[in-house]
């Protein structure tokens, strides 16, 4: 079973993402900011990460930079999930090492499509 770490300061967003991911048979871990997400990655590196941009303590881009410098930090597929939808932020996220980028609010179809694109979910899985 693959593990996805949902990193967002909003408990509601984490809950919604968890419900979708568990429906596709992922094991889900949660973190409320980049610092706690790094601590979870140190315990067990997830297969995928849904990552918010704006969070207290450590932002998404700060987390991603530190993650990618870790020994196994290139392995997780990282999908930014944020309200920041301008070309500058999208290109900045991809340059920092994100694999994909989706806008909030997202629905099951959008999230499933991105997970298929990054190889975390088979196209035929529901």
TrEMBL record:
Q: What is the lineage of its organism?
A: Bacteria, Pseudomonadati, Pseudomonadota, Alphaproteobacteria, Hyphomicrobiales
Q: Which residues carry this modification: 4-aspartylphosphate?
A: 52
Q: Name one GO biological process term.
A: phosphorelay signal transduction system
Name the CDD domains for this protein: REC_hyHK_CKI1_RcsC-like
InterPro entries cross-referenced by the UniProt entry: Bact_response_regulator, CheY-like_superfamily, Sig_transdc_resp-reg_receiver
Q: Does the keyword Transcription apply?
A: yes
- According to UniProt, the name of this protein is Two-component system chemotaxis response regulator CheY
Task: Write out the entry's keywords from A to Z.
Answer: Phosphoprotein, Transcription, Transcription regulation
- The Response regulatory domain is annotated at 3-119
Q: SUPFAM superfamilies from the entry?
A: CheY-like
Q: Which organism is it from?
A: Prosthecomicrobium pneumaticum
Q: Which Pfam families match?
A: Response_reg
């Amino acid at each position: 079973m693959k593990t996805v770490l949902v990193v967002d300061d909003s408990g509601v967003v984490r809950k919604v993402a968890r419900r979708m991911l568990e429906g596709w048979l992922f094991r889900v871990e949660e973190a409320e900011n980049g610092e706690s997400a790094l601590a979870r990655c140190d315990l067990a590196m997830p297969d995928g990460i849904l990552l918010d941009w704006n969070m207290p303590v450590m932002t998404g881009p700060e987390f991603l930079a530190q993650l990618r410098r870790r020994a196994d930090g290139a392995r997780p597929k990282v999908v930014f999930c944020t309200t920041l939808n301008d070309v500058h932020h999208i290109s900045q996220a991809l340059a920092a090492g994100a694999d994909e980028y989706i806008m909030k609010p997202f629905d099951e179809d959008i999230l499933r499509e991105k997970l298929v694109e990054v190889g975390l979910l088979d196209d035929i899985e529901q």
